[in-house]
């Protein structure tokens, strides 16, 4: 299935020279931060030729198109502005990767960054160099929160904000599409739609893609040096948001396991795992709460365990349904 999209802007002048890396940048109603993200890409220190594809996922306001088009028209970066008319996180990523594969046939790597992030100056080089050094097919890096508002530094220790790894090298799997590089052949082999639209408003389409890629034999790595800084609104430190995200994380883990093996044996195994996690969660919560000196952070293992059980009854929080509250 090809995403409904249109190319809204191309760079002025003739055709671009060969592009080694294509960076996709989905956006939804964050025009000011989108420009900050583009400026961070403009500052990349690399000899690799790269282009950027901005994917506006708002056919109503077109704020991404309006903000990014002059940036490319001025020749500050080579790239495209694409409108993905179907709402949803997965549709936006799919449109970006579909465009990258079609528009840049010589690109060996396809990278992704979100419109609430700013890349460090060696971000692109670190991701690609790690892939070349380790032989990995997919490489991720840390998304470090930059909290808005006073007195929020404690939340950097909350598991929803903590990177899954801390050292560069091969890893078993990745979890986020907000800081990642794929070798071209991975997306060509997986085929469109790369992210299943069923995850459009819950998130988790990236984790599902990685789980499917691992079953296909693709290898993963982590680049600790490929840092992006994620602007984190103060509302994401509120108890209601943290609890909703924790419950959602648990639900998605259960759903993805069921998708990997939907047989009776597989579903029974997942349910048994959920039961074990629920039984162990009070002890894990107490240990985490004591180590971080925060009862709210300590609740994370319990919320994840409860979320896994809620998913068995079709209860999954759609945090991306109302982006203004996310």
UniProtKB/TrEMBL annotation:
InterPro entries: Glyco_trans_2-like, Nucleotide-diphossugar_trans. One of its GO terms (molecular function) is glycosyltransferase activity. This is Glycosyltransferase family 2 protein. Belongs to the glycosyltransferase 2 family. It comes from Plantimonas leprariae. Keywords: Glycosyltransferase, Transferase. Residues 23-188 form the Glycosyltransferase 2-like domain. It comes from the Bacteria.
């Amino acid at each position: 299935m090809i995403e409904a999209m249109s190319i809204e802007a191309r760079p002025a002048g003739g055709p671009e020279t060969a592009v080694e890396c294509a960076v996709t940048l989905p956006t939804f109603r964050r025009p000011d931060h989108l420009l900050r993200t583009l400026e961070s890409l403009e500052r990349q220190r690399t000899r690799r030729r790269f282009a950027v594809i901005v994917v506006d996922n708002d056919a109503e306001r077109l704020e991404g198109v309006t903000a990014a088009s002059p940036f490319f028209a001025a020749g500050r970066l080579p790239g495209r502005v694409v409108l993905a008319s179907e709402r949803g996180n997965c549709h936006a990523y799919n449109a970006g990767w579909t465009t990258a594969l079609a528009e840049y046939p010589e690109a060996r790597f396809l990278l992704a960054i979100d419109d609430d992030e700013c890349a460090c100056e060696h971000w692109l080089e670190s991701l690609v160099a790690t892939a070349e050094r380790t032989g990995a097919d997919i490489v991720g890096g840390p998304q470090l929160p930059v909290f808005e508002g006073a007195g929020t530094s404690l939340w950097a220790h909350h598991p929803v904000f903590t990177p899954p790894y801390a050292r560069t090298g091969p890893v078993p799997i990745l979890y986020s599409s907000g800081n990642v590089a794929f070798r071209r052949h991975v997306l060509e082999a997986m085929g469109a739609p790369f992210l299943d639209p069923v995850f459009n408003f819950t998130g988790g389409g990236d984790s599902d893609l990685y789980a499917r890629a691992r079953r296909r034999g693709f290898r993963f790595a982590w680049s600790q040096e490929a840092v992006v800084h994620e602007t984190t609104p103060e509302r994401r430190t509120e108890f209601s948001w943290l609890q909703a995200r924790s419950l959602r994380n648990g639900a998605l883990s259960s759903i993805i396991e069921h998708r990997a093996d939907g047989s009776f044996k597989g579903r029974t195994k997942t349910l048994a795992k959920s039961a074990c996690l629920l039984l162990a969660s009070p002890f894990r919560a107490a240990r985490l709460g004591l180590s971080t000196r925060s009862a709210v952070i300590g609740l994370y293992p319990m919320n994840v365990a409860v979320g896994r059980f809620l998913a068995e009854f079709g209860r999954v929080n759609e945090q991306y349904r109302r982006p203004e509250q996310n």
